[in-house]
Amino acid sequence: MKRGILAVLAVAACLPARAAAPTKGFVAADGPRLVIDGREFRAVGVNVPHLHQIYLGTWFHLDQFYGTREKAKAAAVEAVEDASRSGMAFIRFFAGPGYPIEAHRLYGRDPAAYWRGMDELFALCRSKGVRLIPCLNVASFHADAGEPRGAVLDASSRTHRACRSYVRAFVSRYKDDPTVLLWELENELMLAADVDMRGDALLPRGVYPEGATVREVGTREDSLTWEMTQRLYRDQAAFIRSIDPNHLVTSGDAGVRPEATSRRETFPDFRYRDDSWREHLANELAAQPEPLGVYSLHHYGPADPGPKGCGLDALERARHTARAIRAAGVPLLIGELGQDKPTFRSDPEARWARAYLDMAEAEGISLIALWVWHFPWQPELTLDGRSHPTLIRRAREFNSRHAASGR
Predict the structure, then answer these.
(1) How many CA atoms lie within 13 Å of 301's alpha carbon, on the beta-carbon side?
(2) Considering the chain, what percentage of its residues have pLDDT values greater than 90?
(3) For residue 402, what are the contacts with CB-CB under 8 A and spacing of at least 6?
(4) Among 18, 285, 346, 391, which residue has the least CB neighbours within 10 Å?
(5) Residue ranges covered by each domain of the chain
(6) Where is the Glycoside hydrolase family domain (predicted)?
(7) Are 58 and 73 contacting, i.e. CB atoms less than 8 angstroms apart?
(8) Going along 107-194, which residue ranges are E strands?
(9) Of 214, 286, 302, 277, which Cα lies nearest the Cα of 253?
(10) Measured on CA atoms in the order 41, 331, 164, 110, is the torsion positive or negative?
(11) Euclidean distance between CA atoms 119 and 54, whole angstroms
(12) CA nearest 92: which of 393, 357, 367?
């Protein structure tokens, strides 16, 4: 896409003239605030979901979007460098091994090379002053193990052993590295709570390596109830904290479903009922138990309808939810902030996202990650340092006021 000269110059004028300062210090919770060495830390970052997979050459769609491993790795480097140039404080990425075929390409065949590549990626981010939120995808190891999703809660299962092995290796490797901002468990897992998977399609055969055990149709054992999801959060967060006392852990949740109460009450024979606004807020507060140290929500707008009958638009629902979480005394991460209608591609001014950042700054939200950065899989939502200069400038202003304690 051709971009106007004035837009390019506007962004170039606000780019730093020197290399980014290295990150320092570990983030701790002080009630609803995040602090580094006693000073409050708040920041805007970005999502590059496939970051390590294009850097390591394992992404399933690599050939389609990049052509070669060399070009994919260069794209990963550019995404990090552009985040640094644009003043973004951190990158959130999906840090699990990936689909079974992706895991087989490197992690399963040569784990030493896999971790060397991850070390290189961390060193790149460290050198550019960009922190990381690795989403460890703890509920995604069952496919490669050929077992139902619920096996992650069974300590005798292959799924549980594979998950623990990966998480232990990852967390142990970077537990003393302030490049890690937070550890995240999974992406949007609570949205799957009390959803009966019996008879539903699972991952297709094409994402498995030859000879793998393929389960293409779900069973009841692929379902996770509310209670099972909370147990997973408690167990995994406690396991990570037993290895790494330096970093807080967040769930990666988007939030709860608008009908979460009726799902919980009627599973598996679901009978739909919309939650009231009071029920919805109560569910949001209850969904992410200790020892999780940071709440996680994902917000898209302005078209997201949310719970029926609450009388609030997407921005005001986000505001009231943030206030409730702040009153609970827990910091808040907006792990994904995106636009739906209009999308970023059709709104170069990113009006709703900028209004959200205004609200987030006023309400004391700690961390916000824009969705999405340098991600060709979703061109309608993709941002870069020059695509939306007004939004990038707004994010930089936020960080200049609130993220200095991390430098």
Answers:
(1) 20
(2) 91
(3) 40, 41, 42, 43, 361
(4) 18
(5) 5-406
(6) 86-373
(7) no
(8) 131-135, 183-184
(9) 286
(10) negative
(11) 14
(12) 367
Is the CA virtual torsion 3, 376, 116, 240 positive or negative?
positive
Report DSSP letters for 243-269, one per residue.
H-SSS-EE-------TTHHHHHHHTTS
Give the pLDDT of residue 406. Answer: 72
Query: Residue 335 carries which side chain, given as an amino acid letter?
Result: G
Q: Which two tokens stand for residue 127?
A: 């050198």
Across the chain, mean pLDDT equals 95
Is residue 392 within 8 Å of residue 385, measured between CB atoms?
yes
Alpha carbon 157 to its chain's center: 27
Choose the CATH number for 5-406 among 2.60.120.10, 3.20.20.80, 3.40.190.10, 3.40.50.2020. 3.20.20.80
Give dist(CA 18, CA 163) in Å, integer.
Answer: 41
Q: Across-strand partners of 94?
A: 135
How high is the pLDDT of residue 20? 62
Looking at residue 22, the DSSP 8-state letter turns out to be P
Give the number of other CB atoms < 10 A from CB of residue 34. Answer: 27
**DSSP state, 148?**
-
Condensed to tens digits (0 to 9), the pLDDT of residues 174-187 reads 999 999 999 999 99
CA distance 306 to 304: 6
Burial of 59 (0-12, 13-18, 19+ CB in 10 A): buried
pLDDT value at position 407?
73
Q: How far apart are CA 237 and CA 230, in angstroms?
A: 10
* CA angle, 358 then 362 then 365, to 5°: 90
